[in-house]
Design brief:
By secondary structure, this protein is of the alpha/beta class. The site of adenosine-5'-triphosphate has 17 residues, from helix 8, helix 14 and helix 16.
Length: 448
């Protein structure tokens, strides 16, 4: 059950909201002013706070500031009367997640609450990362010693501090969003908002109002004014996730904001100027999309200024042991477990697997195994299902297989050349030649 706190000095509004929201999904608590709200929020756990902007004594903005001081990060949705839009924007900059202009549409409110609660659940999982995220050029949360990953981080360092648009490509689960956040964290805009717009989650019309906002009455269902992601990301960074999914008509509008740095809310003719750094991501081959007339070439050249391609996990299996250690640490905290490691046999199974879902899939597999694990070390039994999955995946060319096999054996032998040659049944000399030929540079002592 999700508990919602409603803060409004108008009793009629509290009563009305309580009535509509008190269904199976939400349990409602209320406060008549900012002070009472702060007291209650300190004591109880809430999934979201619906906060009125203008209240006597402690107003909405002050409530947000106080909560921030106390490190309380319950998601906040602002409610305000027409005419207080600048203050609402201010509230969003201080950390409110969304805002509704009164009188607003109750279905819209429900949708927003559901979305926010879901987002917050996801964020909780990432607390571990956030703690590590703060230091400058500290890529601690980004694990990877492979040359492929080092190249990616090198590119992040080169471009982060510039205002340049960045396009991040890579299969699903390779870490595109993680890299986008690293760019933001290492940019001069790090104190300003990082706003995510997931282009795939919306229909074309909804996406436009999500990106650009809309005026009240702009279309059926637009019962209140709404600020778009571009506006919220003013002076900050906008992450356009899954940009390959945007329809052609929305692409045209996007092109205009990128070129002219201005746009209009849906249903409005007033232009709004924004200064937003754009980082976009896609798992699609945009050149192919262009060929098939699903993506505008001019837009492509606008976003393809600096492209970072993240290789799939199966092309950097030497990162698997490190990633596994990283996720063990992360989920020991989240699951309150004391797992210290994983058996060599289990690692070996993981390195044989192709991970179509990449790092996200690896993370899920480790989390599941840790939940099941009754020991301090996870053994291969916890991963037996990978053997069955494996039968369906493509093997690749003989050379690729040889390269992966050598890499894997080397990692399992902790980089030791002699032992590796022995277990592969070849001479040390021919192993060294193959390492050179395949550009494998795993050093001894690495990849524990
Ligand atoms: N190099 C890495 N080190 C540690 N964790 C990583 C790394 N890359 C990805 N992850 C983790 O894997 C998960 C998936 O990453 P992310 O969401 O950034 O991928 P994505 O490419 O955006 O995926 P999708 O295309 O499915 O949206 C996240 O939990 C992320 O923290
Ligand atoms: Mg993503």
């Amino acid at each position: 059950m999700n508990r919602i706190m409603i803060v409004d000095d108008e009793k009629s509004i509290r009563v009305m909201l309580k009535r509509v929201l008190s269904d199976k999904q939400f349990e409602i608590d209320e406060a008549a002013d900012g002070r009472e709200a702060l007291e209650k929020i300190k004591q109880g756990k809430y999934s979201a706070i619906l906060l009125d902007l203008r209240m006597p004594e402690v107003n909405g903005i002050e409530v947000i500031e106080k909560l921030k001081e106390q490190d309380i990060d319950t998601p906040i949705v602002m409610m305000s009367a027409y005419g207080t839009v600048p203050e609402a924007v201010e509230a969003m900059k201080l950390g409110a997640l969304d805002y509704l202009v009164k009188p607003f549409d109750l279905d819209e409110l429900k949708l927003i609450l559901e979305r926010i609660i879901r987002q917050n659940e996801i964020q909780k999982e990432n607390i571990y990362f956030r703690e590590e995220e703060d230091k400058k050029f500290n890529f601690k949360e980004i694990v990877g010693e492979s040359s492929a990953m080092k190249r990616v981080l090198e590119m992040v360092k080169k471009v982060a501090h510039l205002p340049t648009t960045v396009l991040i490509t890579g299969e699903s689960g390779t870490g595109k969003e993680l890299i986008a956040r690293a760019i933001y964290k290492n940019s001069p805009r790090q104190e300003k908002p990082f706003v995510v717009a997931n282009c795939v989650a919306f229909s074309s019309n909804l996406l436009e109002s999500e990106l650009f906002g809309h005026e009240k009455g702009a279309f059926t269902g637009a019962n209140s004014t709404r600020i778009g992601r571009f506006e919220i990301a003013h002076n900050g960074t906008l992450f356009l996730d899954e940009i390959g999914e945007i329809t052609l008509s929305t692409q045209a509008k996007l092109l205009r904001v990128i070129q002219e740095k201005e746009f209009e809310r849906v249903g409005s003719s007033t232009s709004i100027k924004v200064d937003t750094r754009i980082v976009a991501a896609t798992n699609k081959d945009l050149l192919k999309e262009i060929k098939e007339n699903r993506f505008r070439e001019d837009l492509f050249y606008r976003i393809n200024v600096f492209t970072i391609d993240i290789p799939p996990l199966r092309a950097r299996i030497e990162d698997i042991p490190l990633l596994v250690q990283h996720f063990i640490r992360k989920y020991n905290q989240i699951l309150n477990k004391r797992i210290t490691g994983i058996s060599q046999e289990a690692i070996s199974l993981l390195m044989d697997y192709t991970f179509p879902g990449n790092i996200r899939e690896l993370e899920n597999i480790i989390e599941r195994a840790m939940i099941m694990c009754n020991n301090t070390i996870m053994d291969r039994n916890l991963f037996f299902f990978l053997e069955q999955k494996e039968g369906f995946t493509e093997a690749g060319t003989l050379k690729e297989m040889e390269r992966e096999m050598i890499k894997k054996t080397l990692i399992l032998n902790n980089g030791n050349r002699t032992k590796t040659a022995q277990s592969l049944g070849i001479s040390r000399r021919s192993l060294l030649l193959k390492l050179k030929g395949y550009h494998i540079d795993i050093k001894p002592g690495k990849g524990k």
